[in-house]
Amino acid sequence: MATTPVSSTKPATEPLAAIPKRLAEAIPASGLPITVDAFNHPWFTLSYLIFVFVPLLFVPDVSTRAVLLSVLATAIFVPIHVHEWNHGRQRPLLAITVTLLIGLALIPFNPGGNTFIIYVMAMAGARLPPRLATQVGLLGWALMTAEFGLLGYPFEAVAAYAGMTLVVGGMVLLSTIVAQVQERQNTQLRLSQDEVKRLAALAERERIGRDLHDLLGHTLSLVVLKSELAGKLLDRDAAAARQQIREVETVARHALAEVRQAVSGIRQSGLLAEVAACRLALLSADIELALRMAPLQITNEVEAVLALSLREATTNVLRHAGANLVTIELDTVGDDLRLQIEDDGRGGKIELGNGLRGMRERLASINAQLDIEQPAAGGTRLTIRVPGPWRTTAVVEAAT
Fold it and tell me: What is the pTM of this model?
């Protein structure tokens, strides 16, 4: 039996044609909403303000003015910092500039003012485009270094403060830039998924329109012609008229059966379509997907039930498993068709909720068996076995 090699999902790098405009609308020019590690919560990051006062602990005769100015600088910065968190997308450069001026104004009285330069780097990395953020961060660092030199600090002290600020601030700047880029990519991925769904829905509507036209166009025309003919024959030849009416009934019943079959096909979710949706859902959650699907001939009814079961299993993985890898296999074991979904998540006790209960009911309609296992290595394995007959002439192509 031919099977396809294991394939792993990788983040998409090329957006669809319609994505750039929608991406620009979804991401303001002034930056993304802050969800990055180094700037994750305004009150948590304020704890770094303690380093404003640390240098004062090593000064033998610290002046009251230095302490008061440090407290004043901190008091001015706190509302700026909180406002930047909540409304910084509007005017990020203003908050960054004010923070830089606070740091430079405090350094002549307290070298701990370099802490505000690190905040400048963090805010720039989180709010500005990467190149501009780097330029702003380096500019603030250069102004701070020059100020230490102009204040007459020894070379060793200037190098120490400059080096410490560059290392710590550079790490913060880099981490926020990387997080911003990742957030942009995630937004682009979500928009790409929405666009794929929209195009799939559009294609499905067009297919339904073509199918209904092909099914009903000729049939309804034939019904109209035979009905007109029966009406004309009614007075002259009642037997012939009755024959035409019987033929109209036959044609109508045949058309009704075709419509029901078409509607049933519309309502069913193809297995490969569900695999594609599963891939997108797992990719958006940063979960790798490995596929091993053999080309098999599956009836529409069995395929629809397997597709819905795969959807429910994927939903459970996303909600509860905490997995890094999901493996989906479709093959045969003897005369049975087997679909297996396995994850490497946390495992644990299986609660029989509405989802699993509905899955079992759907599988029972095709005499399929569902087994749920907890492998020793961790995770959960769902195995669905469908006894024959499950084959048809419609080939399910191997997934790639």
Answer: 0.46
